[in-house]
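Long-time lurker. I teach an intro course on protein structure, and each term I like to show students one example going from raw sequence to a predicted 3D structure in token notation. This year I'd like something fresh instead of my usual example. Would anyone be willing to generate the tokens for the chain below so I can use it in lecture? Attribution to the forum is fine with me.
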Amino acid sequence: MRITGDHTGLAIEGRLDVRSAADARALLHAAVDGGEGDLVLDLGRLEFWDATGLGVIMGTHRRAGRAGRRLVLRDVPGQLQRLLVATRLHRILAVEGAVQDPVGTTLPALG
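-- Reply from a regular --
Happy to contribute to a lecture. Here you go:
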């Protein structure tokens, strides 16, 4: 796993799983704590994630909210979009682009 960027925008590359969760959590939380406004998290190069990785994203979302910021997910892979819909997390997380609900209706997109 590799995370690049700064306090306003980050990109995750590779795997976000139980092995990389602690490092990812530390980097993402530092980005939240060190900036202001939206924190955009680009997931376009994310190859694999597991429940722990999803937990890291949710924890970052909660931390951003407590800091008066918003975590915005960009370029979310289709499989992860489907998982967000299945778990209804698409209703909690800010996701750029269209996300489909279970009956196929396009939900409002950001930006």
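Some talking points for your students: The beta strands are 2-5, 9-16, 39-49, 71-74, 94-95. Residues 15 and 48 are 5 Å apart (CA to CA).
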